[in-house]
């Protein structure tokens, strides 16, 4: 009997070793190029580093990534294009620049679509998010998962924004995205689409008065040096898409593909936790650095939202009524 058990153990060990070796054979040594727009200290950068770490662990150290943060490889639009062409392997990007490739991504630009992070998670991790990631395939890209950039707020050098009227006349930088441009024009601002690397200098010189971004972007880019006021508008929520070149994806084994998807999904949970924990700290830091932070009342938020409804009505047909319905269903499911 001991010999039989030993034999079974031996057979099990051999089988385990065979499976392990077979899986290992499907993972090749690779060094990949991964670029994104934020600094490594930002929660997105921390999430990106966690993703790199997890891919390394799950591949047994075979898959390595050279990371290029802080627009070292170009603007988001440029790095998306480079990833499409296979010049860059992986990109982390805001979803707004993707609208030029897949019009349905404009759903994330709808003003006041989400009230809180729970609603946002339900949409990006649910059927809407999966549909949007899948749509990148026709554009030579593969969507892996969504990180969180966060709720966006307006900063400016002129005045606190407490009503819709306070937005009027501000020269505000927006992303190169039609929904954002139309939304701020509707509020009476002079919307100036501009690549992110140019924004600090434009604010410093007075070429523009304002910009809009989540707290983390405001903080790590030291916008307190060129902006006085932060108005907590929460006018939009920005996911951050993790995307791979389809040229690379098609060369990967199923085992390698699984490593990237699993690593992204683990890293997104970590990244969102970091993002949400740091917001409160960042608000205190920005105040300490001299920024004046004000909240909008629920009544004024409702007025601004109503004023922007025509923008949503304009873009809803191109996004697709079914996708909008799915988003609304996911949001309703959180209550």
Automatic annotation (TrEMBL):
It comes from the Bacteria. SUPFAM superfamilies: Periplasmic binding protein-like II (SSF53850). Residues 1-25 form the signal peptide. InterPro entries: DctP_fam (IPR018389), TRAP_DctP (IPR004682), TRAP_DctP_sf (IPR038404). Keywords: Signal, Transport. Belongs to the bacterial solute-binding protein 7 family. This is TRAP transporter substrate-binding protein. The lineage of its organism: Bacteria, Pseudomonadati, Pseudomonadota, Alphaproteobacteria, Hyphomicrobiales.
